[in-house]
Give the backbone structure.
Amino acid sequence: MVCLGNICRSPLAHGILESKLPTGHFFVDSAGTANYHIGSKPDHRSIHIAQVNGLDINSQRARQFSVSDFDNFDIIYAMDQSNYQNILDLAQTEEDKRKVKLILNENPSITDKNVPDPYYGGDSGFEYVFNILNETCDIVASKLLY
Ligand code: 4NP
């Protein structure tokens, strides 16, 4: 799960998807394309909306996406078109490129395919992001488990 800072959207996507998969069978992680917040905990507003919904994402720490992630992961979900393009720019092979997907393309009921960046907004932005990621991760998890 990849966003820009790895403190708002992708930590939520990481925690949500992980909670929907059986433990030990899948490795879910998150990263940011930028280096601004390396080592930071998720934004307190992401921690809060996760907690309200029964998820503990406190132990996550931000890291920057790296080229080695193409070898370590089978699917790389970008939160928005800008992250998607930045990840694709780092791809070394056609196989790397095929791993990169826009997460909201998994959800046919959402027309705007960008998970909005809630960083500069209020709590309602985080609630919206949680809800669309939760709905979309249900679809992703059911595909992975099929
Ligand atoms: P994220 O949100 O990409 O969902 O983690 C952001 C976090 C920090 C910044 C931008 C977006 N920032 O500019 O520091």
The chain has six helices and four strands.
